[in-house]
Amino acid sequence: MSFQNPVFIPGPTNIPERLRKACDMPTIDHRSPLFGQILHPAREGVRKVLKSNSAQVFIFPSTGTGGWEAALTNCLSAGDKVLAARNGMFSHRWIDMCQRHGLKVEIIETPWGHGVPADRYEEILAADENHEIKVVLATHNETATGVKSDIAAVRRALDAAGHPAMLFVDGVSSIASMDFRFDEWGVDVAVAGSQKGFMLAPGLAITAFSDKAMMATEAATLPRTFFDVKDMAKGYANNAYPYTPAVGLLNGLNEACGMLLDEGLENVFARHHRIAEGIRAAVGAWGLELCAVSPEVYSDTVSAIRTPEGFNATDIVSHAASAYGVAFGTGLGEVAGKVFRIGHLGSLTDVMALSGIATAEMVMADLGLDITLGSGVAAAQDCYRGNRLNADKAAA
C-alpha cells in the first residue's frame, strides 16, 4: 500500500496536512485553562456542524462504537424497550449492543439496500399505547450498503404517533459530510466519530445530547463509568476531563470544525453530493448497480457497488491494494463478496475521485470483468465538468 495515494474506504478518511499539524502538538497540562481553550471551541464547533443551538456535546477518547454505548448507558435502564430497524451491518451492531446490555429490542427486519422504514416505526409506536418503547434507533447512513435514511421522516413518525420515545441517531458516516439537523429533526442523541467527515485519525467518539436526553440520565441505571456524561460535564466545567483526554485529537477537531465552517456547511454537503454523483455516473457506465435500491436512499459518502453474480467482489479490493497501492472497502455481512465500496467523504476533491474511479476500472479489467477502460472516468468527468459549467453560468 502506498502512503502517497488517497484512500477510498468509508473511513478512516484522508487527513489534510493542516489537521495533521494541528494534532502534532507539545504536551500541555490537560487540567489547565489552556486546555479549555481547545476543548470548549471544539465542542462549540461540533454543535455548529450539527446545526444545533442547545445540544450538549460530549467527546470521549473512543470510536463511534463507544458513542453508541454512551448513548445507551446514559439514558436507559436494564429491561427498557428499544425500537430499531436492521438494514445493514452497523444497525445490526447497535442492536447487538442493546441486547448485550439487557435491553429489549423490537427489530424491524429491513432488506439491505433499503432505508429505515419510517411508516413501520409509526405503526409500531402508535400501537405502543403504554409507551413501553423508550428509544428509537436510526442509522442515518448505513456504511455497509451505501444507504442514507430520512431522519426527518422518523421524527415525523414519532410525532404522528404522539409517542414520547427519544430518538438516537448513528451519524458516524454522515455527520460533517451530509446535512444533519439535530434541532430541526428533534434528535435526542447523535453519535459521530473523528475519523470520517471530521477528517481526523480514529480516536474520538463525538456525541450530542438534547435536554430531554440529559433529563433521562437522572433515572438511567445501566452501568457506566468511562462514558458517564455527568462526570464529563463536571470535568468540562473545570476545563478538564474525569480522566486523561486525547489533547492532540481535540486540537485537530477544533481545527477540523474551523475548516468545515470556513468552507461553509452547505458547500461541504454540495461537494460531497457532487463527488458522489460522479461515482454513481461511473458505476452506470460500467454497467453495474449500487446496493442502494433507489436514488432517494443513495448515500453521498459511500457507494456499495454490486459485482456480477459468481464474481468475488473482495478480489477487487485485494488486487487494488497489491497492484496499485489503493484502498477500497470490502463488503460486510450479508453483502460480503457481493459488493465493493468506494468511500467518497471527508478530504476529497473531484480530481482525487477521478483517480479512484480510474484505479477501479484498471482493477476490474485486470480481473476479467467486461469493463471498458475510461468509460467510468469519462462519465464522471462529464458530471464534474457539467456541474462546474452550470456553476459558472449561475455566477455570470
Automatic annotation (TrEMBL):
Residues 30-328 form the Aminotransferase class V domain. GO terms for molecular function: alanine-glyoxylate transaminase activity; L-serine-pyruvate transaminase activity; oxidoreductase activity. Substrate binds at residue 341. Gene3D superfamilies: Aspartate Aminotransferase, domain 1, Type I PLP-dependent aspartate aminotransferase-like (Major domain). Its cofactor is pyridoxal 5'-phosphate. The keyword Transferase applies. It is an enzyme of class 1 (oxidoreductase). One of its GO terms (biological process) is glycine biosynthetic process, by transamination of glyoxylate. Keywords: Aminotransferase, Oxidoreductase, Pyridoxal phosphate, Transferase. It holds the Pfam family Aminotran_5. Belongs to the class-V pyridoxal-phosphate-dependent aminotransferase family. This is Soluble hydrogenase 42 kDa subunit.
